[in-house]
Amino acid sequence: MSEIHRIICGNVNCYIIENGTNGILVDTGKKEFFDRVIESCKSYRVRLLVLTHAHFDHAENAERISDALGIPIGMNENDCNLIQSNSNQALYAKTILGKVVLSVSLKEFSARPMPEFKPNVFLRNDDSLSDYGVDARIISLPGHTDGSIGIDVEQKHLIVGDALMNMVYPTVSMLYHNRETMLESARKISKIGNRTIYFGHGRPVLNKQWVK
Fold first, then answer.
1. By the 8 A CB rule, do 160 and 197 touch?
2. Global pTM value
3. Residue 111 — φ and ψ, nearest 5°?
């Protein structure tokens, strides 16, 4: 039986999925939290780094962690253009809070160029992670970015990256590259059924109807 360990990196969450023998690291946090993430990984045999998407707050440490742990980097191919620049997929917001978060995010995109890295594994919808020792599969959740993905663990836990957010309250993603696609991904999450939802930002909650 797998367990999900949350690594709080400021306002961003990273996760370790582990089953007592093997582990997968999900996202990396910002560079300021490199040591915290590495320290958290020491208790587990981490075999893969999965990026839910390639925004710098989730992927800034990808190359350093891959090198330090000797593990491959997996992500969806549709986010590769974000490695060159996080501005390559324009972001939008509708709510007042979303627009505040967007303003801060765009400033950080300009101030903090993404350290370049090369993914080793391209992950697609329904790909199994069993080769890395964990009973989990990839679920495609585009909208926040073109290549956003989630990880469905043993049909009990669902790590969603920024496909949903819980910065102040649990909701659909406040920032999106494509709003309609983002809403469709939120509907997809609802249809999956009984899961604990693990966000890229905020505390876990039980799955629910995200779009009315």
1. yes
2. 0.97
3. -85, -20
Residue 91 is classified by DSSP as: -
Positive or negative: CA dihedral 76, 160, 126, 44:
positive
d(CA 52, CA 161): 5
156 is written with which tokens? 């009990």
Exposed, middle or buried, 7 (CB in 10 Å: 0-12/13-18/19+)? buried
Give the chain's largest Cα–Cα span.
45
| β 171-172/164-165 pair status | antiparallel
CA distance 172 to 187: 10
Name residue, tokens 């997996």.
74
Assigned token pair, 165: 């957010």
Q: What is the pLDDT of residues 120-173, one digit of tens each?
A: 999 999 999 999 999 999 999 999 999 999 999 999 999 999 999 999 999 999
d(CA 211, CA 155): 21
How many C-beta atoms lie closer than 10 Å to residue 30's C-beta? 19
